[in-house]
């Protein structure tokens, strides 16, 4: 069974991939392949998001055309989408 959500905290950001919404466009992985990839089901998963700079990570998250990647700051404020 595929996890509904994947979550990581990195660079002071709380990043969540909603795999129920993800349709596998792969824009996140194109923007930051060190951070994201598509798994065997064609859905986004984390690789090593801590290896990319914070700004690039935010751009990669924001690149999702269906808003399947959500990002909150340490203060709980929504940053993406």
Beta-strand percent range: 25-35%
CATH class: Alpha Beta
The number of helices is 2
Total number of domains? 1
Q: Please list the strands of the largest sheet in the order they lie side by side.
A: 1-2-5-6
> What's the gyration radius in Å?
11 Å
What CATH architecture label applies?
Answer: 2-Layer Sandwich
Element-level helix/strand string:
EEHEEHEE
> How many beta-strand runs?
6
| pLDDT averaged over residues | 96
Outline the biggest β-sheet: 4 strands, antiparallel
User: How far from one another are the termini?
Assistant: 27 Å
**Any idea what the shape is?**
globular
Structural class: alpha+beta
Helix content: 10-25%
CATH topology: Alpha-Beta Plaits
Unreliable parts: none
Structure description:
- The chain has a single domain (5-74), classed as Alpha-Beta Plaits (2-Layer Sandwich), CATH 3.30.70.
- Helices cover 17% and strands 31% of the residues.
- It has helices at residues 27-31, 54-62; strands spanning 5-10, 13-18, 36-38, 44-46, 69-72, 78-80.
- The strands form 2 sheets. Strands 1-2-5-6 form a 4-stranded antiparallel sheet, covered by helices on one side. Strands 3-4 form a two-stranded antiparallel ribbon.
- Strand 3 (36-38) and strand 4 (44-46) form a beta hairpin.
- The radius of gyration is 11 Å and the shape is globular.
- The N and C termini lie far apart (27 Å).
- The mean pLDDT is 96.
């Amino acid at each position: 069974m595929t996890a509904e959500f994947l979550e990581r905290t990195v660079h002071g950001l709380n990043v969540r991939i909603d795999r129920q919404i993800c349709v596998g466009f792969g824009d996140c992985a194109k923007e930051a392949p060190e951070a994201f990839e598509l798994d065997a089901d064609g859905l986004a998963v984390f690789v090593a998001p801590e290896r990319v700079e914070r700004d690039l990570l935010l751009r990669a998250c924001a690149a999702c055309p269906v808003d399947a990647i959500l990002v909150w700051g340490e203060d709980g404020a929504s940053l993406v989408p």
